[in-house]
Amino acid sequence: MSSNIISTDLTIYESFIQCLQQLSPQTNTNIDHSIVYSPTINPTAYTTILQSHIRNRRFDTINTPKPTIIITPTKHSHVQAAVICAKKLDVQILIRSGGHDYNGLSYVSREKNFILLDMYNLHNVTVDTASETAVIESGAHLGELYYRIWEKSNVHGFPAGVCLTVGVGGHVSGGGYGTMIRKYGLSVDHVIDARIVDANGRILDRKSMGEDLFWAIRGGGGANFGVILSYTVKLVPVPKVNTVFRITKTVAENAIDLVYKWQSIAPAIDTDLFIRVILKPETVNDKITIEATFIAHFLGDSGRLLRIMNNNFPELGLKKEDCLEVSWVESAFYWANYDHKTSKEVLLDRHSENANIFMLRKTDYVQTLISKSGWESIFSKLVDLGNCCVFMNPYGGRMKEIREDATPCPHRGGILYKVQYWINWTEDDPILDEKYLKEIRMLYEFMTKYVSKNPRYAYWNYRDLDMEVMGGSGVSDYKSGKVYETFFKENFRRLVKIKTAVDPDNFFRNEQSIPTLDGLIRRAAETHQFSRI
């Protein structure tokens, strides 16, 4: 590290600490230096904190840009102070709640200096079964939420993801989906209140922030508009007995025919049933073949599930011995690839999932059934590539009943299923990095003719830096903004207007953040595209 960089880091660190101390009387909080980390002041602790929630090793290399300062608030007033001081110093601030960030946008920046606000200390979850609600601080992980619900009730749950170490702040503010999506919709469909620190350092709740901002942070990415402190959510009823199963079929066992049939059955079947399909390459006798795994969560007992399957999808051949009856929280273990009898305390382990992997993810939505010959081509392409997996999650049910503009998440009716392209590797080798990245990009390109078009839709929480990005200085323009039509459709316009109203200086920004209207108008004027704003 050069002396100039050290000098800059120290200057920002010292100025930041001084600002925090000056604010202490206003916030009635003494800022403990132990929650502020610098690579030059306390490098060992800094590195530990930085790496502790990184789930994608692509963004944990020597060449990865690092924050000038990390602050790990333990009180909401610490968050206020961090926002005020970062704005005063004109330094970008990024907000991390869990680290399941496929492109590292919550802790990596192209800007010269940036501050990481790591919310992991703010992870309290309070469950009230009488009102059927929970207040969840944004640094909590899904496993912690599920544990606190299980502590209080065996007939309540919450519709969210299957990765237990996902941070609530990012997951919920970007939409949030899981195995109950067809029964109850997205996580954001059950948010009834929130607390947020805005660009002026004010703590706002639903009443004080207003319905526009409250709408925006339920699917438009909370970090675009402020720092989410907590969400208040409505819990949903779940039966005491749930059923799960996992059946894997090879091509020789008619996997292609089964996937072809699944795509028309899964979005229309009983809403208590969610069946994901995973297409994964396996090597058998030195040859790559594709296996299709059907993994399901059913809100009910195995007897009713078997009747539904026999009537709608008998080709899969589900039998009683394939079914495992579990509680709702045990189903979460099952989907996270744990034994369902695993000690519930594992849900509280914030480092329980393997993070020592490199990865890239991409996403699509399918609106029209893919033909049998199309599936044959897809299976063949997966064999040719050799390392890519495909995860397919059915929609329908409650998702098609909710209006596109109810939240910023517009992909509702008309969607048959969501597709996630998935590749992992463990070797830290630039040549292999390029090989794996090329493979999944080739698969994504190959799938163009089978998925949504004009625009090609994508899920906000799986942001993709292969798409257009904002300028390194956070400057917004119309060209960069166009990428958001794929995430938000017509809802993008409303998000831009809200962003402009609550954060006109674009303080909360990253390479794919919601831009402000001024930048869009400027670019639109140059290109004569006012009608698109």
Arithmetic mean pLDDT: 91
How does the helix and strand content classify structurally? alpha+beta
Number of distinct helices: 17
Main beta sheet: strand number and arrangement?
7 strands, antiparallel
Q: Quote the beta fraction.
A: 15-25%
Total discrete domains: 4
3D shape: globular
Low-confidence stretches: 1-7, 471-476, 521-533
CATH architecture of the largest domain: 3-Layer(aba) Sandwich
CATH class type of the largest domain: Alpha Beta
Q: Helix content range of the residues, please?
A: 25-40%
CATH third-level topology of the largest domain: Vanillyl-alcohol Oxidase, Chain A, domain 3
Q: Kindly state the number of beta strands.
A: 18
Rounded to the nearest angstrom, the radius of gyration is: 23 Å
Our measurement of the CA-to-CA distance between the termini, rounded to an integer number of angstroms, reads: 44 Å
Q: Main sheet: which strands, in order across?
A: 15-12-14-13-17-18-16
How would you characterize the overall build of this protein?
This protein has 533 residues and is of the alpha+beta class. The chain is built from 17 helices and 18 strands. The protein has helices at 3-27, 43-52, 76-88, 142-152, 168-173, 181-184, 206-209, 211-216, 255-265, 302-312, 328-335, 372-385, 430-446, 478-481, 485-488, 491-502, 517-527; strands at 36-37, 69-71, 92-96, 114-118, 125-128, 133-137, 156-157, 191-197, 203-204, 227-234, 236-237, 242-249, 273-284, 287-298, 324-326, 358-366, 389-394, 417-425. Strands 15-12-14-13-17-18-16 form a seven-stranded antiparallel β-sheet. It has a five-stranded antiparallel β-sheet with strand order 5-6-10-8-9.
